[in-house]
Task: structure prediction
Amino acid sequence: MPDSAVTASQENLGSAPDSRRALLKIGVGAMSTCYAAAVAYPVYRYLAAPAIRAREQGQITAVSIASKDLPGPNSATMFLFGSRPAVLIHHADGRYNAFDAVCSHLGCTVRFEPQNQRIYCPCHGGTYDMNTGEVIAGPPPRPLKPYRVEVTDGNVVISRT
Ligand code: FES
Result:
């Protein structure tokens, strides 16, 4: 048998496992990349969520609600100002006030209580003035952030102060 024939035969035997090994490496690498992406993306979304929400929040400058969609006096409507809950209070005398509805204590959503004429946080009993958003009682350290409210052409427009 010529030397070249032996060498070619040995190369064929040696290259088949090498190519399978290389293919296996590529497959494992691709699967590892997919797995890493599947794990990393939700982590990225979780970590980036506050920044995304802050950016979205900054882009919203006003919210308009049709007056016909609002309940009558001495009631309130919850709505979203960007991604933040907010409350629009329709007072008994016809005035409107709107506030950020995130309690300044630990972030629960507050609600208007018409029977008690106050804004109340059910988590720890924080109580806010329904006209100013100032803290009346309980643990909240700061008042609720007010919004500007204008009634125009059948709409109530709530915007940043
Ligand atoms: S979260 Fe509102 S009083 Fe604690």
About this structure: Strands lie at 62-66, 75-81, 84-90, 96-100, 111-113, 118-121, 126-128, 135-137, 146-152, 155-160. The pocket of FE2/S2 (inorganic) cluster is lined by residues 103, 105-106, 108, 121, 123-124, 126, 138-140 (CB under 6 Å).
